[in-house]
Amino acid sequence: MELLESSYPGRRAELKRAILRAALDCFNTQGIEATTIEMIRVACDTSVGAIYHHFGNKEGLVAALFFAAMQDQAALRNDYLAKAETTRDGVNALVFSYVDWVARQPDWARYQFNARFVVSNGPFKDELAQKNKIRNQQVKEWFSRPGVGQELANYPAELVPSLIIGSAESYCRAWLSGRVKKSPKAYRDILAEAAWRSVSTM
Amino acid sequence: MELLESSYPGRRAELKRAILRAALDCFNTQGIEATTIEMIRVACDTSVGAIYHHFGNKEGLVAALFFAAMQDQAALRNDYLAKAETTRDGVNALVFSYVDWVARQPDWARYQFNARFVVSNGPFKDELAQKNKIRNQQVKEWFSRPGVGQELANYPAELVPSLIIGSAESYCRAWLSGRVKKSPKAYRDILAEAAWRSVSTM
Amino acid sequence: MELLESSYPGRRAELKRAILRAALDCFNTQGIEATTIEMIRVACDTSVGAIYHHFGNKEGLVAALFFAAMQDQAALRNDYLAKAETTRDGVNALVFSYVDWVARQPDWARYQFNARFVVSNGPFKDELAQKNKIRNQQVKEWFSRPGVGQELANYPAELVPSLIIGSAESYCRAWLSGRVKKSPKAYRDILAEAAWRSVSTM
Amino acid sequence: MELLESSYPGRRAELKRAILRAALDCFNTQGIEATTIEMIRVACDTSVGAIYHHFGNKEGLVAALFFAAMQDQAALRNDYLAKAETTRDGVNALVFSYVDWVARQPDWARYQFNARFVVSNGPFKDELAQKNKIRNQQVKEWFSRPGVGQELANYPAELVPSLIIGSAESYCRAWLSGRVKKSPKAYRDILAEAAWRSVSTM
DNA sequence: GATGAATGAGCATTCATTCAT
DNA sequence: CATGAATGAATGCTCATTCAT
């Protein structure tokens, strides 16, 4: 799971990563509220004190996990966008990066879905709002580059993201919760094609 | 909120409805786990005992609320489907009924999103699974009527629902969480048109 | 179980008996505190109100059951004593009536052991004390009849009952709790013989 | 009360002992079910959490207390048996150790009587059954030593313990519940003599 | 009388967090 | 820095009892 492994070097960071990993598993398995600090402590064989030292409190841990997922997802999206040129390329980049990230990091994706409500209502809601804003800004900027994005101009700006990513997100949720079996990666082309058709004027 | 008012007559049922209503508000405002029975009790001015008498325990209340939402949503969908004839009509019925229900019952829709994880992992998961199965069966049967559904045959069956409803769901979520301002009803035609294009072969 | 059946005639009394019977079973199976009025209600298919009507409250039911057992046990003891003549006969009457009653009414005997603490500390403790006094008086009087009881005069009065009944009681407890298999009735002669030897001066 | 004081050294153990002591008093005074954790907490001036930390839950506390009593009683019995040689000595050892222990630890003895039902039906019943088995084994082994126990061979094995200890137990119960005034210690010789006569063949 | 829905004080238990060692 | 025992407010839930019908 390079998401954690690539981040920090050193002994200290190793413990931090172990805690995050253990917390992720517990949160996904038991639910966030149902997970106790003690469970996480057992799962990564450390002390309560250590967890509090690194993350302040339970909400800090929840948020750290959420922001790590956001950042990793953003990195992949930016990679894909960097290689794209046309509007169609951009739509593909959004759908592919989304689908590929979920398929590669299903645990983090599942967590992201479940944790959003808590984080966006907890003490880190402002930090989340700001990160969201930055993300939207980046995507918006990409689609505002000269010679790109005109194809989307016919649609309300607030609707476009849903048109592009909605089907992919919907299928990914179904896959993560086990309601469908095939990996979203198997359908990435259909999903990208459908997204493109959704926003194209005939 | 006709969702509750139409269901049961009589004094007894009145208390039951008041509890459901109060619980819905608390769950949406504070979050399910953060809501205490005491908060609900205050909100509908009854006794703890009465709540337990009617719903068994907190999870029973959470589930009762969830199933009430499901049923109300299903009723509207069936209404719309009953009036539809062609495949295109069917797609429209799915998108319109979804959008209209969310726009009409935003509290119930918001709750449905937030409660799904808890219900599908709690003691009522089997009941939920069965209700889901029935719902899928009904929709599937509609699209299997003679002369209908061939247009969707080119797509994997497990992918089709996401292609049809994904964008609408995505925008509804954004609206319910306040990230976008315009009611999904304003975009129902665009969303239905996009859905249709998603599943149409050129 | 003639203990209850012989007591009251009529429809009303029938319900009262049914409640007592159900309560006895519940108390013995679950323990007195762990038994709820609701459990008893289900077991005898009546209403909570009916139980309260007949016994006032839970403690009243507990006491009524206890006193019924005492009375039935006393009746048998008095029967046996009425037929006895010598001191030895009296000792036999005590041991035999005790053993025979336990063997015939194991449920009531078990209950009597378990309920004593609660009753003797609850609101009926005075009534219990008085009934105990009467019982002791009766036995004492029997052993004070002319020509009887001198054989016991060498032993402290407060010790004699334990010397006579102790072994029988100990074995009955063991039998009721399943620690030994053979009915105490099989050993009634040995127990009576041992009791007699316990209080006999060599 | 050396029963607790002799067991564990150190600060930690001190709290544990204080909790046990407080629980014993509360259980004996109010009854086990009627005692709340809060009462115990007040009685030993600690926190609820500390009680749960050390004993898991109320039933764990009840059992710990019960097993402590069993062990202390067994220690005294083994002391007495170690010094005994003949069968008569053995019978005396059983009666004397029983009487002396009750007289020395009346609180623990009273508790043992009251708690048996709960422990033998609760989550520690298996542990209790096993400890009982071990105890019986030890006594049985003592009476199976060469040259000992033949005097008891005429009586059914399952009856012998009741014949030996029944009267003593009966009197001890009466004393603990206040029905008789004199300490059982005053009658230990009579009780041992009676026990011996109970099992002796004329 | 009989019924059982409603009441609400009271309880066992949990668990995030602190802080002395 | 690390540890984990101790804390205690807070919660879900129970159940004896009442009383309107």
Question: Short description, anyone?
Answer:
The structure is a homotetramer of 202-residue chains. Chain A is an all-alpha fold and 202 residues long. Chain A is built from ten helices and no strands.
Architecture overview:
The first copy, chain A, has 202 residues and is mainly α. Chain A is built from ten helices and no strands. In chain A, helix 5 crosses helix 6 and helix 5 crosses helix 7. The mean pLDDT of chain A is 93. Chains A and B meet through helix 7, helix 9 and helix 10 of A and helix 7, helix 9 and helix 10 of B. Chain B binds a DNA duplex (21 and 21 nucleotides) through helix 4.
List keywords for this structure.
homotetramer; 202 residues; mainly alpha; Tetracycline Repressor, domain 2; DNA-binding
